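Newbie here. two chains, one complex. Structure please?
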Amino acid sequence: MILSFVQAAYVLATGLFVFALHWMNTPKTARRGVQAGVAGMALAVLATWAQPGVVHHGWIVLAIIAGFVVGIPLAMVPLTAVPQRTALSHAFGGLAAGLVGTAKYYLWLGEGPENLTAFRMVAIILEIILGYLTFTGSLLAAGKLQEVKWIPQRPVTYPGQNLINLLLAAAAIVAGGALALHPTASWAPQLFPVIIALALLFGVLLIIPIGGADMPTVIAILNSYAGLAAVAMGFVLDNKLLITAGALDGSSGLILAIIMCKAMNRSFTNVLFGAFGQVQQLKAGGEQKQYKGETAEGAAQILEQASLVVIVPGYGMAVAQAQHKIRELYDQLKKRGISVKFAIHPVAGRMPGHMNVLLAEADIPYTDLVEMDEINPDMPQCDVCLVVGANDVVNPAARFDKSSPIYGMPIIDADKARTVFAIKRSKNPGFAGIDNELYFAEKTWMLFGDAKNVIGELVKQFAGEGGMH
Amino acid sequence: MQRRVFTRLAPAAIPLVLAATSLAAQPQVVDSTQAAAATHAVAVDVWPLVYVFVLATFIGLGVIRRVSRLLHTPLMSITNAISAIAVVGSIIVTGGDYPTPIRAMGAIALFASMTNIVSGFLITDRMLKMFKTEEKSGPGGRS
């Protein structure tokens, strides 16, 4: 009786999760999606708790309270810290899957070795490998995003890196295979921790060669792994709710990773094993090109005469926390009847959709946030394109320079605008270490300085005029 | 175009291939005499599980493909919360009548999942609240 109730609750929860994701397809219904998700999760927790097999309640209550105590502050982080929060929660998800797999293996080993069928063993091994590698990999990714001092920001590469990774993966698979065939052998309880150690190490080695510009893809892949670890747990526990919810998460991570890869014209393998950041060193040297600088005063005068202004935000905007100043500029321009659009490249920032969230935080209506493919046809009509802390996503070298590491990447056609203003912190090349052709173009003027200050200066120019002394 | 995408997915398909080989590997173990009898006693019919997994993946791909690009960050945080469904396994392990070390591992897993559920749903809602159209954003041009 109670078991049919539990199963019914699980079916309902699955349906609610599907609707939760379905409602995310437009901002109008998205919040309803969250409510559906919460309802589904509450049902799943209560139904599981009500099972007759669950007899001890003290620790459950404690763990749930601890989850709230840590979870609530984690939800209050500033929105610029959302990428590292997301990576951290992938780490938690991976850890949970790994621990449950470990617990189940030792439990069955001690109390019912007949439960350790080959199928279950393979599922357990997949669960712990995916779980623990997601754990350390995501922790490292979160550390890189948070710019923790002792974690290198730039990609770390060494000779034979891919070979070592491959050997490590092979070792884990061989050990896992041996364990699956002989789950109760005398050496099995000792081999199991070896696999855990290999997975933990593999997670670290997989992420150290990856640079900040590739983080959106990597976060999406880790998201997918966390989902697949939950699926494997479902196979271990013979639980269909785990399988469906995990599969939804897994496919979501997969689709986001595909979108990110397409937006960089790179493959999964290239992102994971291609260590961005070395090839372009070859291109250094060559003739010294000159930037043309412009003052805030001059830029404001040109902006004022525009009828269409397109702003291209990038990670630099997030670093400088410039989104609120941009909102002020947006208001000033709108007040003068100038139309302002934001051109959002899929990989701008450090996670999928990063720029949209920051601009929405600054109260910019989402109807003015335009995707790359939709804005590009309008770029020739654009009077002024203002590039705020974006670099690779507007580099025209992606179109013609075959030796460039970003060759073939779809870009926002900033160079087709009549005038380009680019805000840049320093005169050094961008994150990927690539020279940006756009900055040397005839119609481009540079505004050097912190994005927040530069935009603040622009706003002051406009406010000064309107203020009438 | 579509084919290119799928060749790129090859590395991600590795877990699937491993799962498939595990199914092929199963009969070999049943050979060992002791395990044989025991396996039958607790045999789980694995095919319905695989079936559920494949269908759920297709539903996931269909639904997620339609999610607005505007909302990719909230999408990621809500799927984070949903994948914390590992909470189900954690409760079973923590609350069962098992040895203490096993239950302790379950409790840590439960704490980790619960943290994801709470922070995942809360931050998703917090972000979604910020997405407004022009009319709703109140008096524009605050001077």
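Moderator note: The CA atoms of residues 216 and 351 of chain A lie 4 Å apart. Chain A touches chain B through 142 residues (CB under 8 Å). Thread marked as resolved.
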